[in-house]
Amino acid sequence: MTIAQIRRARPLLAALAITGFGLVLAYVASSIFPVISALTAAVVLGVITGSVPALPEATRQSIGKVTKRLLRAGVVLLGLQLALPAVLDLGPGTLIAVLLTVAISFLGTIGLGRLVGVPRGLAMLVATGFSICGASAIAAMEGVVEREDSDVATAIALVTFYGGLAIAAVPLIGDWVGLTGEDLGSWAGMSVHEVAQVVAAATPAGAAALAVAVVVKLSRVVLLAPMVAAVSVYERRRRPAAQGKRAPLVPLFVLGFLAMVALRSTGILPSAVLDGAKLLCTLLLAGALFGLGCAVRIGKLVRTGGRALLLGLLSTLLVGGVAFGTLALLG
User: Transmembrane stretches, by residue range (predicted)?
Assistant: First the structure.
């Protein structure tokens, strides 16, 4: 390798080193404070790193390139966490309730975003994260919608904040309205944002509630691929080619996600492989979210804070209310 090649590779090497170090710190923070997931810690550390004035622009650009690759690989591996037979065992009533909850919550949150004056890109990301699977869904959707760099961090912060509140609120509200056992688990799985938050919210109701909650939550995750594909198609039609590069009709990483779901559903993969894939998926997504955080500008994040918080509150109430109603009617 020549000196010139080494110089050209410096920004990429620096980006890999910074991302790797941020990933390690995210896992350390998550182990010290278990209530904070590695994904959330990664995006916070990314925002802090991106705010360092001394970070060269070439390195920032390289972090962005690394981020895209990590993100797509992570979303593909996310498919190995989903087994269709387990989801189908929920029965038609619950599955229809999940589908209606996701659709109404997604479209309703976008409408609420317009009502409270939140930028369209941020509203789309909040709608995706709150209606499907939190930070992972936001990370998958950010590549197909027009949005500001700060919107990703804002949406993830809202998922973390309101999902954390839901951990305490869901068992309390469930007890108040008479939901117990598997019924509470179903509601937790349909209304709480992150998988880890669902586990925390359903655990007090017992093992049966927890098992149902996780499967119901994963049935929402199954809808990530068709949701991203549908939004991608809509964005292509909405933005003429003259306005710039159009999103692909169906992103390749979405097809990869579906392929992994199909592979997991065959039941041929041993548990050791699935456990390793789950860990690798988390590492890839955490690295990607660290990179997305590096692109954030604090000033823009602060300026949208109040309206974004209101949207997060309204969306949380919408998801919880629709989930409760559809389960009462169909579950």
Answer: 12-29, 35-58, 70-88, 122-140, 152-174, 195-215, 249-270, 276-296, 308-330
